[in-house]
Amino acid sequence: MSRDPVPPVAEILTARAGEEMALNDRYLNPQVGRIVRTLGFDRRWVGGEGAHLIDSEGARYLDLFGGYGVFAVGRGHPEVAAAVQAVMDARTGNMPQLGVTLLSGVLAEQLIARAPDSVAAMVPANTGTEAVEAAMKVARAATGRPRIIYAEHAFHGLTLGSLSLNGNEEFREGFGPLVPGCAAVPFGDEQALARELEAGDVAAVVLEPIQGKGVNLPPDGYLQAVQRLCRDAGALFVCDEVQTGVGRTGRFLALERWDLAPDMICLSKALSGGLVPIGAVLVSRAAFDRVFDGMERAVRHGSTFGGNDLAAAAALATLRVLDQEGLVARAQRMGDLLMELTAPLVDRYEVVRDVRGAGLMWAIELGPPDGRARRSVWQAAERAQPGLFSQLVTVPLFHEHRIFCQVAGHRMNVIKALPALVIEESEIRRFAAALEEVIARAERVPSALARLGLQTGRRMLAGR
Ligand code: PLP
Fold it and tell me: Which residues 6+ apart lie within 8 Å of 114 measured at CB?
């Protein structure tokens, strides 16, 4: 192993530029490297601005991944960067640990002011999964009950606790035994939930108001019914707004759409402008006080970096930018436009099964076409690699239109977009037009795309 002294970071960024893939393959995750190369997404990303990623040739790509939804205020927002810089310049007394700090307190004050009255305290964290872990622990300790209910197809993170609430087998497989007492119910099925709550041993029901994997919206009245059922059963209702929160769906919190007042709200992702890791759980006063109920129990949950000044400053700046630039309302407007432009694709193309979303959390679901010939193309693609057909759309979007978007889950033909809320109207129109062009081509000349797809599939399968 090289023991050369570490050069200054600015020097590393120039002197070692171009070594990213080799370093990844040697030390990080070579399988991710293979996927990226197979799809031809192996650009050298040298910058980001607003809703765009910029490659080493200076080409700008419309970034609909949004870093898995962290860049709500756009990449590299100067105000967020300035807030982080201000903390560093001030050399604050960060993380005294047995002590308290200002910025974390102001952040809690600001978040609670934007949340329903049902929550009154904040437990800081560093990531989404950590926020979910905290909610699970608070729920058990506050109720003295063991069980936690989650929804099929849910995604709450990948550490062992949140993985125990993961509704997709491909993530869980191989990591068991997971946390005992966790059980899934179908998302949208009130009766199934009511049955789970009957025994009175459920600490919490943890749900994403809109599921991130697949962008599944709840049926009318479902979330209100869940809240009612939880209250009646003495279980806590936890809304995981890690993805849906901070303006993404056209509300500061998605739960505002249904007037919910949960016992806990998990936040992360966009909260700190994509600059610094952050997580937080907003907790009801009653639940909080039952967990932290004496000096000897003051630190029974927490983490070293939780509530640090850099994250709090970035989050405060993010909230300021959201307000100043009217980004929550903008998410609704731009989301409405995207829906207006893309919803008609369901009627125009056989392969388009559904277009759904809220604000700038958007997805299109593809399914097998009706005609026999076309269906066989679909089936061939799916045999090569389940979910492959979607890549026949995302790959040309990337290569021909410089639009970077994701397939929303393993073995699913759902394409998803989580653009920066600052996205321009012209970019929404450009995306909608490019998407239609690519889908139309997939239907008209499936064989050309199938060739691409099958090659991709075989390469993905090789050496598995
Ligand atoms: N909860 C939800 C709803 C998420 O979408 C995610 C991540 O995508 C998480 C939790 C986990 O967050 P993290 O990746 O920061 O651990």
Answer: 252, 253, 319
- pLDDT digit string, tens, across residues 58-78: 999 999 999 999 999 999 999
Nearest C-alpha neighbor of 149 from the set 107, 177, 181, 178:
181
Q: Does 262 contact ligand 1 (Cβ within 6 A)?
A: no
Quote the ligand 1 centre to 57 CA distance (angstroms): 32
User: Are the CB atoms for 23 and 44 separated by under 8 Å?
Assistant: no
- Domains, the chain: 1-39 (no CATH), 42-73+327-462 (3.90.1150.10), 78-324 (3.40.640.10)
Model confidence, pTM: 0.95
Identify whether the C-beta of residue 241 lies closer than 8 Å to the C-beta of residue 255: yes
Contact 80, 72 (CB under 8 A): no
Cα 66-430-436 angle, rounded to 5 deg: 100
Cα dihedral angle (211, 33, 404, 269), rounded to 10 degrees?
A: 40
pLDDT beyond 50 at 463: no
- Ligand 1 pocket check for 212: Cβ under 6 Å: yes
